Amino acid sequence: MASPLKHEHEHDTLSGIKRRLRGAYDLDLNVSYSRLGSLFHPQLGTAVGDLTAAVKRLYGSTRLSLGTNGTTASNTLMVLSAAVEGESLIMDRHSHGSVYGALVLGGATPHYLPPRFDQDRGVPQVSLTSDVEQALATHPQARSVLITAPNYYGAQPDLPGIRKQVRAAGCWQLIDAAHGAHLRASPRLAPAIEEMQPDLMTTSLHKTLGALSQSSVLLGFGDNPELDARLQELIDTTPVISTSFSTVILASIEPALAEVQQTDRWERAVDLAADLRERLSYLPGCRVIDLAAQIGVAACDPLRVCLDVSATGLTGYTLADQLEAAGHITEMSTDRHVLLLLTSATSQAATDSFLATLTEIIQAANVKPHSTRTGLHPPDGLPSMVLTPRQAFLAARRAQRRVPVADAVGSVSAETLAAYPPGAPIVIAGERLRSDDLEYLRSVRRLGGVLKGSADLELNTVAIIDD
Q1: Which DSSP symbol is given to 30?
Q2: For residue range 165-193, what is the model confidence (pLDDT) as tens digits?
């Protein structure tokens, strides 16, 4: 697996691409091949069944669903298993867009944990145990609680404390751990999410491991017949899992499992990350963010390095573009940061090359001493929910209209609007539009960010539902 810090661009002819894909074609089996087995009912003695058993052994789960449609599909199964129309769930507001898609499909009512933002560091905060306790008391009818851990920045909340609150309320605990598949590789990383034994959790095997894109697993723990039955019914009756699943993606999972067990390589990456943080701290205008010092953070993945570049005069978007032009890919950028990801494949040569390139860019920016640029931060509080995501989707199908942003304030949004990455919604369809939310999104776009969910990519207009 190539290091995310360094990407070698290769421009192949069509025939060259075909040559490189020859091995993939050999692995692309017809799903009618009996010895292959099925994702719907994996049986030991088949390729899919044996792979399923291997993943279950590694993560210690009692039930598991392999996926080749990404954690978007796994999250959809997880949420639909836990809550549908007439039911509700408590969830992080910073949840992935796929969670909101599942709310549209299933019709469950969401109750959001209060979003918190660390203005000093310029990053979102994790949910607090007290937030979960209050939400459970306010919404005793909720059947489940969904937490994203680790988040995009690698931070984890107090999961044992949250688990205690959720269990006491008799609810199901759901965790989107898309960025945490590797954590069990070494005790020097953050605690493995599966050790929390949530009722259901999802994780991506391609984000931090070497499996191919869209490889994902949905894991379950403990004895829960009702949740098991709900999940199996969804697997059997909905199109969330394709009958034409990718055997190429499945084949890439096995070496990824072996990668998790290469502890020495992961610990070398931890050392490289510590060294990189130290060296980055000396660059003018750069500040390495100590994510573990945030309020509510119980643990943080040391392989994610968050660099605040606001004092360089450059935005994170601009810096990421310049790094990419020089052959270095960042994990994420915001108006204020670039986020770097190291893996078991990262080498000293890769970090040295990255640092040299970054130093050249910073020097060319001619940073002035104590120069600062105020970063953006999402508006406080939440817009009021007028319609659930599903109700808003159906209402928008019947009647919506697009109006200038200035005329949209106070109306019910027909669109779910987010800055991507990380893609956490600022406004969800069915919520009343606030001027601060719209101005924040437009500012993100002006600074070079990408907007997700709006048909108007510049957000000069917004689709609304007449209420």
Answers
A1: -
A2: 999 999 999 999 999 999 999 999 999 99
- Angle between helix 129-138 and helix 159-168 axes, rounded to 10 deg: 20
How distant, in Å, are the alpha carbons of 326, 339, 373 from that of 314? Answer: 16, 15, 9
Could you tell me the two tokens for 223? 């004895």
Domains of the chain, start order: 22-260 (3.40.640.10), 263-364 (3.90.1150.10), 389-465 (3.90.100.10)
382: number of CA atoms within 13 Å, CB side?
19
Quote the DSSP letter at residue 135: H
Which of the 8 DSSP states describes residue 456? Answer: S
pTM score: 0.93
Query: Which residues of the chain carry a pLDDT beneath 50?
Result: 1-10, 370
Residue spans of alpha helices (H) in 204-289 = 225-237, 247-260, 263-280
What does the radius of gyration of the chain's CA atoms come to, in whole angstroms? 22
CA dist., res. 163 & res. 179, Å (int): 19
pLDDT at 7: 39
CA distance 137 to 130: 11
Residue 262, amino acid = Q
Distance CA 111, CA 385 (A): 10
pLDDT score at 8: 42
The CA distance from 211 to 70, in Å, is: 11
**How many Cα neighbours within 13 Å face the side chain of 425?**
26
Q: 43 is written with which tokens?
A: 């049986």
Which of 413, 424, 426 minimizes the C-alpha distance to 387? 413
Structure tokens given for 189: 């990383």
What does the pLDDT look like over 115-171, one tens digit per residue?
Answer: 998 988 989 999 999 999 999 999 999 999 999 999 999 999 999 999 999 999 999
Element (H, E) at 159: helix 159-168
Coil vs helix vs strand at 156: strand
Q: Any idea what DSSP says for residue 447?
A: T
- Give the Cα separation of 392 and 387 in Å (integer): 6
pLDDT digits (tens, 9 = 90+) for 41-99: 999 999 999 999 999 999 999 999 999 999 999 999 999 999 999 999 999 999 998 99
Q: What is the pLDDT of residue 231?
A: 96
Dist. CA 221–CA 62, nearest whole Å: 5
Going from the C-alpha of 231 to that of each of 91, 241, 304, the distances in angstroms are: 19, 12, 33
Say if residues 156 and 191 touch (Cβ distance below 8 Å): yes
Report phi then psi at 15, rounded to 5.
-65, -35
